[in-house]
Write a structure and sequence with these properties.
The protein contains 13 helices and twelve strands. It has about 375 residues and is α/β, with parallel strands linked by helices. The protein has two domains: about 220 residues, Type I PLP-dependent aspartate aminotransferase-like (Major domain) (Aspartate Aminotransferase, domain 2, 3-Layer(aba) Sandwich), CATH 3.40.640.10; about 130 residues, Aspartate Aminotransferase, domain 1 (Alpha-Beta Complex). It has a seven-stranded mixed beta sheet with strand order 1-7-6-5-4-2-3, with helices on both faces. A five-stranded mixed beta sheet has the order 8-9-12-11-10. Helix 2 runs parallel beside helix 8, helix 3 crosses helix 7 and helix 11 runs antiparallel to helix 13. It catalyses: L,L-cystathionine + H2O = L-homocysteine + pyruvate + NH4(+); an S-substituted L-cysteine + H2O = a thiol + pyruvate + NH4(+).
Protein backbone atom coordinates (compact mmCIF):
# COMPACT_ATOMS: atom_id res chain seq x y z
CA UNK A 1 0.00 0.00 0.00
CA UNK A 2 1.45 3.36 -0.99
CA UNK A 3 1.82 5.56 2.09
CA UNK A 4 -0.10 8.79 1.88
CA UNK A 5 -0.11 11.54 4.46
CA UNK A 6 -3.23 13.64 4.12
CA UNK A 7 -3.08 17.37 4.86
CA UNK A 8 -4.27 18.31 8.33
CA UNK A 9 -7.33 20.39 8.95
CA UNK A 10 -6.47 23.90 10.23
CA UNK A 11 -5.04 23.26 13.67
CA UNK A 12 -2.69 25.08 16.05
CA UNK A 13 -1.27 23.88 19.34
CA UNK A 14 0.92 25.24 22.09
CA UNK A 15 3.01 22.07 21.82
CA UNK A 16 5.37 21.25 18.92
CA UNK A 17 4.37 18.20 16.87
CA UNK A 18 6.22 14.92 17.34
CA UNK A 19 7.05 13.66 13.85
CA UNK A 20 8.39 10.10 13.74
CA UNK A 21 9.81 8.35 10.71
CA UNK A 22 12.75 6.25 9.57
CA UNK A 23 12.01 6.73 5.88
CA UNK A 24 11.78 9.99 3.96
CA UNK A 25 9.70 9.75 0.78
CA UNK A 26 9.98 11.97 -2.27
CA UNK A 27 7.49 13.46 -4.70
CA UNK A 28 9.39 12.34 -7.82
CA UNK A 29 12.52 10.65 -9.07
CA UNK A 30 14.47 13.89 -9.51
CA UNK A 31 13.91 14.88 -5.89
CA UNK A 32 15.18 11.48 -4.80
CA UNK A 33 18.23 11.64 -7.07
CA UNK A 34 19.12 15.07 -5.67
CA UNK A 35 18.36 14.24 -2.04
CA UNK A 36 21.87 14.97 -0.79
CA UNK A 37 21.46 18.61 -1.80
CA UNK A 38 18.89 18.99 0.96
CA UNK A 39 21.64 18.93 3.57
CA UNK A 40 22.56 20.29 6.03
CA UNK A 41 19.10 21.61 6.95
CA UNK A 42 16.76 19.33 5.02
CA UNK A 43 15.70 15.69 5.23
CA UNK A 44 16.92 12.89 2.99
CA UNK A 45 16.95 9.82 5.25
CA UNK A 46 15.81 8.98 8.77
CA UNK A 47 19.31 9.44 10.16
CA UNK A 48 19.43 13.04 8.92
CA UNK A 49 16.73 14.11 11.36
CA UNK A 50 13.09 15.02 11.70
CA UNK A 51 11.23 18.34 11.84
CA UNK A 52 10.85 17.80 15.60
CA UNK A 53 14.62 17.57 16.05
CA UNK A 54 15.17 20.62 13.83
CA UNK A 55 12.75 22.64 15.94
CA UNK A 56 14.70 21.69 19.07
CA UNK A 57 17.93 22.71 17.34
CA UNK A 58 16.47 26.10 16.43
CA UNK A 59 15.36 26.70 20.00
CA UNK A 60 18.70 25.72 21.53
CA UNK A 61 20.65 27.84 19.01
CA UNK A 62 18.49 30.84 19.90
CA UNK A 63 19.08 30.25 23.62
CA UNK A 64 22.85 30.04 23.04
CA UNK A 65 22.78 33.17 20.82
CA UNK A 66 24.19 30.98 18.07
CA UNK A 67 23.29 30.51 14.42
CA UNK A 68 23.29 26.71 14.23
CA UNK A 69 22.81 23.66 16.41
CA UNK A 70 23.13 19.90 16.00
CA UNK A 71 21.47 17.62 18.57
CA UNK A 72 22.78 14.17 19.49
CA UNK A 73 21.53 11.20 21.56
CA UNK A 74 23.49 12.24 24.69
CA UNK A 75 25.86 14.87 26.03
CA UNK A 76 28.77 12.48 25.60
CA UNK A 77 27.73 11.90 21.97
CA UNK A 78 27.86 15.67 21.49
CA UNK A 79 31.39 15.85 22.94
CA UNK A 80 32.61 12.91 20.86
CA UNK A 81 30.82 14.06 17.71
CA UNK A 82 32.33 17.52 17.97
CA UNK A 83 35.85 16.12 18.32
CA UNK A 84 35.39 13.47 15.62
CA UNK A 85 34.12 16.02 13.15
CA UNK A 86 37.42 17.92 13.13
CA UNK A 87 40.27 15.96 14.75
CA UNK A 88 42.29 13.47 12.69
CA UNK A 89 45.39 11.34 13.13
CA UNK A 90 48.46 13.55 13.37
CA UNK A 91 46.55 16.37 15.06
CA UNK A 92 47.28 17.61 18.56
CA UNK A 93 44.29 17.73 20.94
CA UNK A 94 44.32 19.66 24.22
CA UNK A 95 41.84 18.42 26.84
CA UNK A 96 41.24 19.85 30.30
CA UNK A 97 42.09 17.39 33.05
CA UNK A 98 38.70 18.26 34.57
CA UNK A 99 36.65 17.46 31.47
CA UNK A 100 33.92 14.83 31.61
CA UNK A 101 35.53 11.47 32.38
CA UNK A 102 34.18 9.65 29.34
CA UNK A 103 35.66 12.29 27.01
CA UNK A 104 39.06 11.89 28.65
CA UNK A 105 38.82 8.11 28.38
CA UNK A 106 37.82 8.38 24.72
CA UNK A 107 40.75 10.68 24.02
CA UNK A 108 43.25 8.53 25.91
CA UNK A 109 42.12 5.04 24.91
CA UNK A 110 40.76 5.60 21.42
CA UNK A 111 41.95 8.83 19.78
CA UNK A 112 45.53 8.38 20.98
CA UNK A 113 45.59 4.92 19.39
CA UNK A 114 44.40 6.46 16.12
CA UNK A 115 47.43 8.73 15.97
CA UNK A 116 46.05 11.80 17.73
CA UNK A 117 48.55 13.52 20.04
CA UNK A 118 46.39 13.88 23.17
CA UNK A 119 47.57 16.21 25.93
CA UNK A 120 45.77 17.00 29.17
CA UNK A 121 46.23 20.44 30.68
CA UNK A 122 45.74 22.09 34.07
CA UNK A 123 42.02 22.73 34.66
CA UNK A 124 42.43 26.25 36.08
CA UNK A 125 44.46 27.61 33.17
CA UNK A 126 43.87 30.78 31.17
CA UNK A 127 45.98 32.68 28.64
CA UNK A 128 48.98 30.71 29.90
CA UNK A 129 47.74 27.82 27.78
CA UNK A 130 49.60 29.41 24.85
CA UNK A 131 52.93 27.57 25.36
CA UNK A 132 51.04 24.26 25.06
CA UNK A 133 49.84 25.04 21.54
CA UNK A 134 51.78 23.28 18.78
CA UNK A 135 51.78 23.83 15.01
CA UNK A 136 49.45 20.80 14.67
CA UNK A 137 47.09 21.71 17.55
CA UNK A 138 43.58 21.31 16.16
CA UNK A 139 41.22 21.76 19.09
CA UNK A 140 41.07 22.73 22.77
CA UNK A 141 38.40 20.97 24.85
CA UNK A 142 37.18 22.78 27.96
CA UNK A 143 34.71 22.34 30.78
CA UNK A 144 34.15 25.08 33.33
CA UNK A 145 33.54 24.51 36.17
CA UNK A 146 35.28 21.17 35.87
CA UNK A 147 33.61 17.84 36.47
CA UNK A 148 33.54 16.84 40.16
CA UNK A 149 36.19 19.24 41.50
CA UNK A 150 34.78 22.43 39.94
CA UNK A 151 37.93 24.21 38.73
CA UNK A 152 37.29 27.39 36.72
CA UNK A 153 38.99 28.00 33.38
CA UNK A 154 39.43 31.47 31.92
CA UNK A 155 37.37 30.58 28.86
CA UNK A 156 37.51 33.98 27.10
CA UNK A 157 41.29 34.14 27.49
CA UNK A 158 41.76 30.61 26.14
CA UNK A 159 39.43 31.34 23.22
CA UNK A 160 41.40 34.48 22.34
CA UNK A 161 44.71 32.61 22.36
CA UNK A 162 43.22 29.81 20.26
CA UNK A 163 41.90 32.23 17.64
CA UNK A 164 45.30 33.81 17.24
CA UNK A 165 46.71 30.38 16.42
CA UNK A 166 43.81 29.14 14.29
CA UNK A 167 42.85 26.49 16.85
CA UNK A 168 39.25 25.39 17.38
CA UNK A 169 37.68 25.58 20.85
CA UNK A 170 34.89 23.57 22.43
CA UNK A 171 33.30 24.11 25.85
CA UNK A 172 31.07 21.77 27.82
CA UNK A 173 28.72 24.41 29.24
CA UNK A 174 26.29 22.08 31.01
CA UNK A 175 26.93 23.36 34.56
CA UNK A 176 25.92 26.94 33.72
CA UNK A 177 23.40 26.29 30.92
CA UNK A 178 22.87 28.97 28.24
CA UNK A 179 21.08 31.12 30.83
CA UNK A 180 24.19 31.24 33.01
CA UNK A 181 26.94 31.57 30.40
CA UNK A 182 27.06 31.84 26.61
CA UNK A 183 30.49 30.69 25.37
CA UNK A 184 29.81 31.66 21.74
CA UNK A 185 29.67 35.31 22.82
CA UNK A 186 33.21 34.91 24.22
CA UNK A 187 34.82 33.63 21.03
CA UNK A 188 34.34 29.88 21.55
CA UNK A 189 33.65 27.87 18.39
CA UNK A 190 31.46 25.09 19.83
CA UNK A 191 29.21 25.12 22.87
CA UNK A 192 28.13 21.69 24.08
CA UNK A 193 25.20 21.10 26.42
CA UNK A 194 24.09 17.83 27.94
CA UNK A 195 20.40 18.60 27.49
CA UNK A 196 19.92 15.54 29.70
CA UNK A 197 20.55 17.90 32.61
CA UNK A 198 19.05 21.41 32.87
CA UNK A 199 17.35 21.67 29.49
CA UNK A 200 15.35 18.46 29.85
CA UNK A 201 15.22 18.98 33.58
CA UNK A 202 13.35 15.85 34.71
CA UNK A 203 15.92 13.01 34.61
CA UNK A 204 13.95 11.10 31.96
CA UNK A 205 15.93 11.52 28.72
CA UNK A 206 19.38 11.55 27.12
CA UNK A 207 20.12 14.34 24.60
CA UNK A 208 23.15 16.46 23.75
CA UNK A 209 23.57 19.64 21.70
CA UNK A 210 26.40 21.38 19.85
CA UNK A 211 25.81 25.06 19.04
CA UNK A 212 27.98 27.23 16.80
CA UNK A 213 28.03 30.26 14.52
CA UNK A 214 30.19 29.15 11.59
CA UNK A 215 28.22 27.71 8.67
CA UNK A 216 31.10 25.54 7.50
CA UNK A 217 31.47 23.99 10.95
CA UNK A 218 27.74 23.32 10.98
CA UNK A 219 27.92 21.49 7.65
CA UNK A 220 30.76 19.31 8.94
CA UNK A 221 28.91 18.42 12.13
CA UNK A 222 25.66 17.69 10.33
CA UNK A 223 27.55 15.21 8.15
CA UNK A 224 29.31 13.79 11.23
CA UNK A 225 25.94 13.34 12.91
CA UNK A 226 24.66 11.41 9.91
CA UNK A 227 27.78 9.27 9.38
CA UNK A 228 28.05 8.33 13.06
CA UNK A 229 24.31 7.72 13.42
CA UNK A 230 23.90 10.39 16.12
CA UNK A 231 20.24 11.17 15.58
CA UNK A 232 17.79 11.99 18.36
CA UNK A 233 14.42 10.38 18.89
CA UNK A 234 11.64 12.88 18.13
CA UNK A 235 10.00 11.90 21.42
CA UNK A 236 13.13 12.88 23.34
CA UNK A 237 13.40 16.09 21.33
CA UNK A 238 9.84 16.91 22.34
CA UNK A 239 10.61 16.25 26.01
CA UNK A 240 13.59 18.61 25.90
CA UNK A 241 11.45 21.35 24.36
CA UNK A 242 8.85 20.84 27.07
CA UNK A 243 11.56 21.06 29.72
CA UNK A 244 12.96 24.25 28.18
CA UNK A 245 9.64 26.00 28.79
CA UNK A 246 10.31 25.90 32.55
CA UNK A 247 14.11 26.19 32.37
CA UNK A 248 14.29 29.78 33.56
CA UNK A 249 12.11 29.29 36.64
CA UNK A 250 13.71 25.95 37.53
CA UNK A 251 17.24 27.28 37.19
CA UNK A 252 16.45 30.35 39.28
CA UNK A 253 14.95 28.29 42.09
CA UNK A 254 17.69 25.65 42.07
CA UNK A 255 20.43 28.27 41.81
CA UNK A 256 19.13 30.15 44.85
CA UNK A 257 18.65 27.01 46.96
CA UNK A 258 22.06 25.63 45.98
CA UNK A 259 23.97 28.69 47.14
CA UNK A 260 21.95 28.75 50.38
CA UNK A 261 22.67 25.10 51.17
CA UNK A 262 26.34 25.40 50.17
CA UNK A 263 26.83 28.36 52.51
CA UNK A 264 25.20 26.42 55.34
CA UNK A 265 27.44 23.41 54.69
CA UNK A 266 30.53 25.63 54.67
CA UNK A 267 29.83 26.41 58.32
CA UNK A 268 29.54 22.78 59.44
CA UNK A 269 32.45 21.43 61.50
CA UNK A 270 32.67 18.15 59.61
CA UNK A 271 32.94 19.90 56.23
CA UNK A 272 36.58 20.47 55.40
CA UNK A 273 36.17 22.22 52.01
CA UNK A 274 33.44 23.22 49.57
CA UNK A 275 34.33 23.02 45.87
CA UNK A 276 31.95 25.62 44.49
CA UNK A 277 33.00 28.75 42.53
CA UNK A 278 30.02 30.91 43.66
CA UNK A 279 31.48 30.85 47.19
CA UNK A 280 33.93 33.66 47.89
CA UNK A 281 36.36 31.15 49.40
CA UNK A 282 36.71 29.20 46.13
CA UNK A 283 39.85 29.86 44.03
CA UNK A 284 37.68 30.20 40.92
CA UNK A 285 35.28 32.73 42.43
CA UNK A 286 36.65 35.77 40.57
CA UNK A 287 36.25 34.08 37.17
CA UNK A 288 32.78 32.82 38.09
CA UNK A 289 31.74 36.31 39.20
CA UNK A 290 33.08 37.89 36.00
CA UNK A 291 31.60 35.41 33.52
CA UNK A 292 28.55 33.65 34.93
CA UNK A 293 25.00 34.58 35.83
CA UNK A 294 23.96 31.51 37.81
CA UNK A 295 24.95 29.60 40.93
CA UNK A 296 24.13 26.34 39.14
CA UNK A 297 22.73 23.41 41.08
CA UNK A 298 25.88 21.32 41.49
CA UNK A 299 28.81 21.45 43.91
CA UNK A 300 31.20 19.12 45.70
CA UNK A 301 32.52 18.88 49.22
CA UNK A 302 35.34 17.23 51.10
CA UNK A 303 34.63 16.13 54.65
CA UNK A 304 37.07 15.86 57.53
CA UNK A 305 39.23 12.74 57.22
CA UNK A 306 37.49 9.55 58.30
CA UNK A 307 37.17 5.90 57.34
CA UNK A 308 35.39 4.58 54.28
CA UNK A 309 32.78 3.31 56.70
CA UNK A 310 31.96 6.92 57.61
CA UNK A 311 31.19 7.75 53.98
CA UNK A 312 28.97 4.69 53.77
CA UNK A 313 27.12 5.93 56.84
CA UNK A 314 26.69 9.40 55.31
CA UNK A 315 25.03 8.03 52.18
CA UNK A 316 22.98 5.39 53.97
CA UNK A 317 21.51 8.09 56.25
CA UNK A 318 20.14 10.14 53.35
CA UNK A 319 16.35 10.10 53.15
CA UNK A 320 15.52 12.87 50.66
CA UNK A 321 18.65 12.87 48.46
CA UNK A 322 18.73 9.99 46.01
CA UNK A 323 22.10 8.40 45.26
CA UNK A 324 23.03 8.79 41.61
CA UNK A 325 25.69 10.20 39.32
CA UNK A 326 23.63 12.52 37.15
CA UNK A 327 22.26 15.94 38.04
CA UNK A 328 20.27 18.97 36.86
CA UNK A 329 16.78 17.53 37.39
CA UNK A 330 14.04 18.32 39.88
CA UNK A 331 15.22 15.65 42.35
CA UNK A 332 18.27 16.17 44.55
CA UNK A 333 21.11 13.69 44.10
CA UNK A 334 24.32 12.70 45.89
CA UNK A 335 27.31 10.97 44.30
CA UNK A 336 30.58 9.66 45.72
CA UNK A 337 34.07 9.79 44.22
CA UNK A 338 36.61 7.84 46.34
CA UNK A 339 40.12 8.93 47.24
CA UNK A 340 41.95 6.60 44.79
CA UNK A 341 39.99 8.13 41.92
CA UNK A 342 41.14 11.60 42.94
CA UNK A 343 44.73 10.51 43.46
CA UNK A 344 44.88 9.05 39.93
CA UNK A 345 43.77 12.32 38.30
CA UNK A 346 46.23 14.60 36.56
CA UNK A 347 46.48 17.99 38.29
CA UNK A 348 44.29 16.66 41.10
CA UNK A 349 42.71 19.33 43.30
CA UNK A 350 42.57 16.89 46.20
CA UNK A 351 43.60 13.39 47.20
CA UNK A 352 40.59 13.04 49.50
CA UNK A 353 37.16 11.47 48.81
CA UNK A 354 34.66 13.85 47.22
CA UNK A 355 30.90 14.02 47.72
CA UNK A 356 29.00 15.76 44.93
CA UNK A 357 25.52 17.16 45.49
CA UNK A 358 22.91 18.24 42.97
CA UNK A 359 20.15 20.39 44.45
CA UNK A 360 16.68 19.89 43.02
CA UNK A 361 13.35 21.57 43.68
CA UNK A 362 12.46 19.98 47.01
CA UNK A 363 11.94 22.09 50.13
CA UNK A 364 15.40 23.31 51.04
CA UNK A 365 14.77 22.87 54.79
CA UNK A 366 14.08 19.17 54.20
CA UNK A 367 17.32 18.93 52.25
CA UNK A 368 19.23 20.74 54.98
CA UNK A 369 17.84 18.40 57.63
CA UNK A 370 18.73 15.43 55.46
CA UNK A 371 22.32 16.61 55.18
CA UNK A 372 22.46 17.35 58.90
CA UNK A 373 21.43 13.78 59.64
CA UNK A 374 23.96 12.41 57.16
CA UNK A 375 26.74 14.47 58.73
CA UNK A 376 25.78 13.21 62.17
CA UNK A 377 25.98 9.63 60.90
CA UNK A 378 29.37 10.42 59.36
CA UNK A 379 30.60 11.94 62.61
CA UNK A 380 29.91 8.75 64.55
CA UNK A 381 32.58 7.03 62.46
CA UNK A 382 35.03 9.94 62.14
Amino acid sequence: MKPITTPNEPYRSLSPPVMRGSTVVFDNFQDFANRKTRQPDGYSYGITGTPTARELERRIAALEHGKHCVVTPSGQAALMGCVMGFVRGGDHLLVSAACYGALKTYARNYLARMGVDVEFYRPDIGADIEPLIKPNTRMICMESPGTVTMEMLDVPAIAAVARRHGVLTMVDNTWASPLGFRPLEHGVDFCVEAATKFLGGHSDLLVGAISMNDRGHYEVLRETQSIMGLQVSPDDAFLVMRGMETLEVRLAAQSDATLDIARWLAGQALVRELLYPPLESDPGHALWKRDMRTNGCLFSMILQPASERAHHAFFDALAHFSIGASWGGTHSLAAYYPAPLQADRLYARTDQPVIRLSIGLENRELLREDLRGALEAYGKHA
